Amino acid sequence: MNGYAVTIRALLVLLSFVTFHWSALAGQWTDETGRSVQLDNPPQRIVSLVPSVTETLFALGAQSRIVGVTDYCDYPAEARQKNQIGAYADPNLEAIVAARPDLVFASAEMNRPAFVERIERMGIAVYVINPRSLDEVVAMVRSIAHLIDEPSAGRALADAMQERIDAVQARAQERTHPKTLFTIMTSPLIVAGPGTLSDDLLRMAGGVNVVEAGPSRYPGWGVEGLLAVDPAVIVATPHTQDGSDKALEYFARWPQLQAVQQGRLVSIHSDLVHRAGPRLVDGLEALHDALHPREEE
């Protein structure tokens, strides 16, 4: 990450704690990638290309303003009833324009800059999110709330999240810190390295990431790498119960792993640890409890 990006992230986190009247910032918004976003009035018609943002908008009580979501925007259940504008990885530009939004939320991880530019050329404002830590997720909640002119709801939601985060960190400080492998998928085996949201969750929950820094934040691993690090805990993050069973069966093929021998294969639903929204705190709590099962009072 370059110095400019670090400065932008630090500034956004700082500004998230400052309360402004909406009109004081009208037309002067900066998104999480440092882009300038022109928005002269609070948005009333919002398209969300990001499942975590959709969840956040519902949590802020702004669901009536949502006029478009992706096929992955499935929480809460009411989100499924919203107008579908295409796949998460491949949203439909025509459907977005047809929804007549005054603001589109996009993701730096999933939506290419060229696609964002195409939306902007249609005269539609686009705000890009890019949180890579839990602190940045809380700051994102505050920023979204200010952007849609719901600062009180945003402050209440973000404060509640932060209180639970602080409680987990306080408990984690008193626990042992097991060497942990945080996996993204098992076929092929993809793991979370430093500089990822998963790594930040693991650290806050009281674990030590066995994946070292390298060219990719989400490297692919072979069996040799897995056996070499021999983690004390292995965390699988499937989308379904069937996926959970298969992930645990995958690692059970190597009984020499200490995580297998000691029954420390853990499964946490991917939405709780990969979606950068309010439920991420649920994932943090579940991860902490999984890392320290015998130490809980």
Automatic annotation (TrEMBL):
Domain of life: Bacteria
Record keywords, A-Z: Signal
Signal peptide boundaries: 1-26
Signal is among the record's keywords: yes
InterPro entries named in the record: ABC_Transporter_SBP, ABC_transptr_periplasmic_BD, Vit_B12_bind_prot
Residue span(s) of domain Fe/B12 periplasmic-binding: 45-295
NCBIfam families for this protein: TroA_like
Annotated protein name in UniProt: Iron complex transport system substrate-binding protein
Origin species: Desulfurispira natronophila
